[in-house]
Amino acid sequence: MSAVQSELFSVYTRYAENRKFKREAMMRSLYSPDIVPVAGDPQLGYIAGVLSRFAGTQQTVYDSGASPGSGNNAANFMERQVQRALSQVMGRTANSPDTFISALNEAFPANGNGRVVSSPARSVTSLFGSQNNVTALSAAGLSGQISIEQANLYRQASIVANDALLVLQGIQPFSPLVDLTQLETLRSLVVTEIKTLVDEFGRVDEPRPERVAAYFSALRGLDNAAKGGHLSEFGKTALLDRNFGAATPATLADESQIAAYELVQSYVTNLFDIWSRFKPELDSVGSPLFSERLSRASVLLSVLGEGNQNFMAAMDSIGFTENERRSKATKLSLLQGFTVVIPGSDTDLGLPEMTVNDLNEWLDRYAALEGPTILSDSGLYGLEFVTDQADQLFWTIASIVGFIKTADLTSATTKPVLVQALLHERVNWALDDILNQLKSLADLAA
User: Does pLDDT of 189 surpass 90?
Assistant: First the structure.
């Protein structure tokens, strides 16, 4: 990296940190317990809260599929669902037959035998920097977008574990005193624990350290000498563990069984060392590497798309349908007359000049079409674009949430339909969820 590039990166990092600080301050203001003064009998407040939650989750006629609307709107909704599904699988939007065929071939390439792979390889992070190796990675089980570091972890663990399992299956005790039923039970446990660890290392949503620790504890025991776990119990039961004086080989074949058991112990120790070297990178939430941020952004975009669907479904469920949301009477800027200054914040929440449907479409295209495509095609610059858009959307949604948190609920039924819809518990819960997801996505900026 040149001096100019280094300076630009430093400037962008400081800029990203400043924006993150402002977002955190806004979240503290929005969700402060003091934002709306609590008055009256707390027991009555509790009862009111229970009834409000019941009303917010009770099924309505709109939830049962009887929501009014034209057939054309239903067709458009189904079309959007199909387009989103195709773009998520293939990694890009296909607007013509040629681009569709090209995207389909890239997502499902043919392997060396001429057969088409069964899982989309589009989102696989290549270890070798070449698209020709995507098929090999997909065949290795690296389905889904994971970071380069996690791909290395999974690849190393897979190679070690595969050989360890082969050696383990070939171990046979030479002493007639061995309880074979107990031995096979322990062998099955060890096999399951090793396979589970490797599967966890390849998890698309990143390995869970607590789960990995639990399985290593069961496999190796609580100390670092590979004793006390199921593998050690397997060696004791098979009378192959030299540390307990039970192994008394009489032939070369007997000695080979002891060596095989010790080799499996060494393999398990290697698995633990590989994980130990990777875990500090997993813990670096504050400044994750590019490939890790790319992986997390991909997951968050998917979650954000689901959140937007929940937001639209919540409005549908209370009778605030898509046609109404497209009306200029539902422009979000009309909420200005009802906004209240949020305590502890001097940020101008300027409400957007767009309808509710405009906001839904922006979120939908960003989460399901534009974001995934840009991430897969534009690398670091694409990630910067995605996080910048997330920041812009965060402040747009924050202005609406700010209105909801500070609105006067005592006369909600006398307010315009847009205000009543946004104050409904289902709707504002969905907005809370979107806001939190946007913040997490925007925080992935360098």
Answer: yes
